[in-house]
Design brief:
heterodimer, A: 334 residues, alpha+beta, four-stranded mixed beta sheet, three-stranded antiparallel beta sheet, 13 helices, B: 400 residues, four-stranded antiparallel beta sheet, 11 helices, 16% strand, globular
């Protein structure tokens, strides 16, 4: 048994982590969150340069030929840093084309996605992250197939939505029913499973960071003449946050591994568990983190809200924990 | 990333299964005698306590957590009596290996591993629980004997144990932790009075042990006088022992699903009830997280990268406690009025694996004990806060 990352996977994760720490400190994430979108493009360009845009694109199309586990490891780091980049939709669009596109569709789009020349997004429903600026949209059709639609195609409208999570702003996207080209082997359910795993990984990274931010605050904030970390009530609350979140890492690791290596039904179940469990645990950690910060935690000025809203997105988008638990029940012999 | 054990361990698994089939069930003798005889065979084969030196009856092999896991799972599946009393095999034996005299190792270890010697642990006292080092039971040296007086409590297995290892105050004038020694007592010595305590669900497992002028040979001290506290902590650094296997909780969850299926709500099996489905799925999520946390720990420890899984190690006990309580609470909600009946005596015992209604009622109460035994949940939260999150230690009153 070796339920551990390979050296290459660890190196990838460390590379992204140090990039995020260096290039996207909380102050910059905050500046972008507060409306100065300029630096966001540079952040994405930096990630493109280290190969993130084409991580799961086959090598013959200029990508790294890796799989969902590697994407999830990146998602954890982007969540940890609330990094405002269009990673989610872009890599999912690449996955959809690599898995289900015709040779011509792949030839046309995958090299551009891998190089970052084109930006991809995915419309599972009406609300689409990073649709603004996207060149192509992978659109879910009512019959469970997927189509590739050019963003400037006739009839496509993209209306920005004032979004809680400003690090991944949404738009309302309307796509005519027969727009674009169907991906011959496109599989909506399978693409959605990949998205669930990435959301879980993102939420895990964000919650893990929020717990550590709360710890640091508790060690600095003084009341009654001592750091509030000295009070056992707070110490136990922080410990409970860690007990709920920290051991869940293996759950999304496994869901990603199952997606890459195990039958689709097993992978679907693991993805549903990862999304339901991790985003639920992360939600509670985020609420607790606000509480641990006291009055300041409730303000716009405090950075906790950035992570709180990142987790909110991860939990609300593509089905709440309850919806996924009902799916799990349906997949079980209960 | 690979979740299979691989060909080397597959060969080991098959060998252990063949061994179990050849040796169990055994005929003749009492249950206890059959268990001892089987464990001696498993020790000789190198499958049981494989890292304990051969000179003391173990397998004399290098640690290999994957091999240990494969063997334990094969033992579990075969129903062989591989567990002797855990107080002996998991607490006393590592302590003697770390701090015992050569004579103590030779006299006690082999017989403890086989189960010929059963041990109980004399730590807690009525006034000393989480603050164990405040203990008052005393031992005074009189010639070549210790004379022991006091009272121990929550002593599991005291009615069947041959021996007790325990902590006693030997240096009355020393500071709290420095006044304690680690002694070994023969439970048949005059002056020992064992009184079983009845647990809230009705079964008996732990006891009170009263000690009145109990005489023990002077050589029955492990480590030096006044070092008993450190001797008792010496084994704690082997945190690998904290790794819970999720197999037990998974078995209980299977029992819970079965209970839900045979319980009707609105004329349908409760597994059709949306609320029950939500709760089952949520518990299954916790269980899956626990399973993969265990797999991460196994893999990391096999490569001596324990530090990378410190979060999983430090949260394992609280996680297991929380899951056990979620399962037990849902079971009680499914039972409804069927949960009003008192469990039958055999349903109230620890370790029974038949999931009758009464057994679930019993489990509803017994699941509380894991929140208390072996480091109460609030003590676990302190440890997690300090060692995982780097929060400051609690301020303690002067002298503690």
């Amino acid at each position: 048994m070796d339920f551990a990352l390979s050296e290459e996977q660890e190196l990838l994760q460390e590379t992204v982590r140090s990039y995020v720490e260096r290039e996207c400190p909380a102050a910059l994430a905050r500046q972008i969150f507060d409306g100065d979108r300029g630096p966001a493009a540079k952040l994405w360009q930096g990630l493109v340069e280290i190969g993130i845009a084409g991580l799961a694109v086959p090598e013959k199309f200029g990508g790294a030929g890796l799989a969902l586990l590697e994407l999830a490891l990146v998602a954890e780091e982007l969540g940890r840093g609330v990094v405002p980049v269009p990673f989610l939709g872009h890599v999912l669009a690449g996955l959809a084309l690599a898995q289900g596109g015709s040779a011509a569709q792949q030839e046309r789009w995958l090299p551009k996605l891998a190089s970052g020349e084109a930006l991809g997004a995915v419309a599972f429903g009406e609300l689409v992250p990073s649709a603004e600026g996207a060149n192509l949209i992978i659109a879910a059709r009512a019959d469970g197939t997927l189509a590739v639609v050019e963003a400037n195609a006739a009839g496509v409208t993209i209306a920005p939505l004032a979004s809680n999570d400003r690090s991944r702003p949404l738009a309302r996207v309307a796509i005519p029913a027969n727009a674009g080209e169907v991906l011959p082997q496109g599989n909506l359910a399978r693409l959605r499973d990949a998205a669930l795993v990435l959301l879980a990984a993102d939420a895990f990274g964000a919650a893990h960071r929020l717990i550590r931010m709360s710890v640091e605050y508790a060690k600095t904030r003084q009341q009654f003449g001592q750091p509030i970390a000295q009070f056992q009530a707070l110490k136990h609350q922080l410990a409970d946050m860690a007990v709920e979140v920290d051991p869940a890492r293996g759950l999304w690791w496994y869901a990603a591994h199952a997606y890459d290596h195990e039958p689709a039904d097993r992978a679907a179940r693991a993805a549903a568990h990862a999304k339901a469990h991790v985003t639920d645990r992360a939600q509670q950690a985020a609420r607790d983190a606000v509480e641990c910060h006291g009055g300041i935690g409730f303000t716009w000025e405090c950075d906790v809200q950035l992570w709180f809203k990142r987790i909110l997105f991860d939990r609300q988008w593509l089905g709440t924990p309850e919806e996924h638990r009902e799916r799990i029940a349906q997949m079980s012999a209960w | 990333m690979d979740l299979s054990f691989g060909p080397e361990y597959e060969t080991l698994r098959q060998a252990v299964e063949a061994f179990c089939q050849r040796t169990w069930p055994a005929a003749g003798g009492t249950e206890r005698e059959r268990g001892i005889a089987w464990r001696k065979q498993a020790l000789a084969a190198g499958y049981l306590h494989r890292t304990v030196p051969k000179a003391y009856g173990g397998g004399g092999q290098q640690p290999d957590i994957l091999a240990e896991t494969v063997i334990r799972r094969a033992f579990e599946a075969s129903g062989v009596p591989y567990r002797a009393s855990a107080q002996g095999t998991h607490m006393l034996v590592p302590t003697l290996l770390e701090c015992g005299s050569e004579e103590q190792r030779e006299v006690y270890i082999a017989k403890t591993l086989s189960g010929e010697l059963n041990w109980c642990q004399g730590y807690s006292e009525p006034g000393s629980g989480s603050d164990l080092a405040s203990l008052k039971s005393s031992a005074r040296l009189d010639g070549d004997q210790w004379v022991i007086n006091g009272q121990k409590i929550w002593t599991s297995n005291a009615t069947v144990a041959d021996m007790m290892f325990g902590l006693f105050r030997t240096e009355a004038s020393a500071a709290k932790h420095a006044g304690i020694s680690y002694l070994l007592l023969d439970m048949r010595a005059p002056g020992i009075d064992v009184r079983p305590l009845r647990m809230m669900q009705g079964g008996e497992d732990f006891c009170e042990v009263f000690l009145n002028d109990v005489r023990v040979p002077a050589k029955n001290i492990v480590g030096k006088r006044g070092e008993g506290w450190n001797v008792s902590r010496a084994t704690l650094k082997h945190e690998r022992m904290l790794i819970g296997d999720s197999a037990g909780a998974q078995m209980m969850f299977a029992g819970l699903v079965e209970l839900a299926k045979r319980t009707l709500r609105n004329g349908l099996p409760a597994t059709r009830d949306p609320l029950v489905r939500q709760r089952l799925a949520e518990i299954e999520g916790y269980l899956a997280a626990q399973e993969y946390a265990s797999a991460r720990m196994l893999s990391a420890i096999a490569k001596n990268r324990d530090a990378s899984v410190l979060p999983e190690m430090l949260t394992a006990k609280l996680t297991a406690t929380n899951i056990g309580q979620r399962i037990a609470k849902l079971a009680m909600d499914l039972l409804g009025e069927r949960g009003l009946g008192e469990p039958a005596p055999d349903e109230a015992e620890m370790g029974i694996r038949r999931f009758t209604d009464g057994r679930w009622v019993s489990q509803y109460m017994m699941s509380l004990s894991t929140a208390i035994a072996g480091g109460a949940s609030n003590i676990q939260r302190n440890i997690i806060g300090e060692r995982l999150l780097g929060l400051p230690r609690d301020q303690r009153p002067a002298g503690h």
